[in-house]
Amino acid sequence: MSEPDDRFDGPPHSDPPKSEAVFNAPLSVVVVALSMPVLFFFQRQLPDMGASMAFAPIDLQNGRWGGLFTAMLLHGGWAHALMNAVGALAFGAPVARLFGERFGSSVFLLFYIGCGVIAALGYGLVHWGSSDPMVGASGAVFGLIGGATRLMGAPQGGRGGRVLSLFDRRVITASIAWMAVNAVTGLIGYAPGADGARIAWEAHAFGFFAGLLAIGPLGRAFGTTSHAGRSGGADSAI
């Protein structure tokens, strides 16, 4: 009973707390999030409130492709811009951390813009010929949500973590939940910050699945992660 027992000496000093990483979003994510309210401030100063930069599906027929990108820079109101900014900050952080420091900022921005363009393109194909304009970065933000969905369980928000398989139960469950909420929101036509405008839920879905699929090969190419579960299958076919 007199033998020393060091089991109650507390945690080793070499293991500092890691919770502060949650509050340190990468600079590229902060810039994207802050750009939304800043750009909306300048959008309000334009004579047409930026309508000429919006995207309408009929633009595809007329060979006007620029709106696929510029629509991401516009929003329908302060609430719309702030809601997307919060979403980008929350779900963009783990995605940006996955890509590391060397190419992280560039790859993150390309990932974000690519998801937004695919979201708008998908919306345009579904509503082919429509002249109803669409604005907002929601499709790109849903791409970040899709990417973050495959980082669930990765330590430190993806840094040194893993990209889960598309067939992982957690990924499938979360994807179904996100798309169910998205579909219901689109059907009832209401979402915070929408201000009565039509919800482009189809663009959200295209953006989400673009991010869900792209995070795998991009993580392998630019991240320092190892895949969990079945890393083959759909990932290797992309």
Annotate the secondary structure layout.
Layout lengths: L26 H17 L14 H4 L5 H4 L7 H21 L5 H23 L11 H12 L19 H20 L12 H22 L11 H4 L1
Description:
The protein is mostly helical. It has 9 helices and no strands. The radius of gyration is 20 Å and the shape is globular.
Task: Explain briefly what this protein structure is.
Helices cover 53% and strands 0% of the residues.
Question: Which tags fit this structure?
Answer:
single chain, 238 residues, globular, mainly alpha, disordered C terminus
Give the mean pLDDT. 81
Can you give the helix content as a percent range? 40-55%
Total strand segments:
0
Structural class computed from helices and strand pairing: mainly alpha
Secondary structure tally, helices: 9
Shape: globular
> What series of H and E elements makes up the topology?
HHHHHHHHH
CA-atom Rg in angstroms = 20 Å
Query: What is the makeup of the main sheet?
Result: none
* Termini gap: 63 Å
Low-confidence segments, ≥5 residues, pLDDT <50? 1-22, 155-161, 225-238
Strand content: under 5%
